[in-house]
Amino acid sequence: MSANSRQVGGSHYSSQYQHWDWCIAIGLHYLLSAATKYLCRWRNKNGLQDVEKAGHYLDKYIEVLPIGIRDRSTLSRQFIAAETQRWLDTNNITGSERVACWTMATWNDRDDLIRAREAINAIIETYRNDESELMHKHHQENFKEAVYQARQRYIADGDESIHAKE
Fold first, then answer.
1. What DSSP string runs through the chain?
2. Which of 72, 91, 122, 152 is the most buried (most CB within 10 A)?
3. Phi and psi dihedrals of 45, rounded to 5?
């Protein structure tokens, strides 16, 4: 299944010519890609907040334009690794998030990108498992509360035998 044949969350990207395909085709810089992404989806997703995000990304691009946007093809692997390490450390990015970001920043071949996707999948799976555990705990707490309420009703009705069995 191709990435274009599915969407994660919502239905705001349903065009035959996807935004990311356009960004790739014209080599659009990340900041402009993000700005245009928010701008083209705002009516179908988050309204004004998305427009504000688009403006924020554009502001950042304008801000860095005078110092020059680096062409990645001219950067050494050592520079990319050092900058990536600095960014990960500065932002306290750990675990699978760190693996995915590091791999996406320093990839050499398709296998590296697949490893990054596997790290992202691990994050999703962990989140879903944690969410499932929280739901289970919530149901257990609701059950305990229901038992407590039933005991209180029995006591109020004069049947203290259920309380005595504890």
1. --GGG--SSSSS---SS-HHHHHHHHT--HHHHHHHHHHHHTTTTTTHHHHHHHHHHHHHHHHHGGG----GGGS-HHHHHHHHHHHHHHTT--HHHHHHHHHHHH--SHHHHHHHHHHHHHHHHHHHHHHHHHHHHHHHHHHHHHHHHHHHHHHHTT--HHHHT-
2. 122
3. -130, -85
Q: What are 66-112's pLDDT values in tens digits?
A: 777 766 677 788 888 888 888 778 777 788 888 877 787 787 877 88
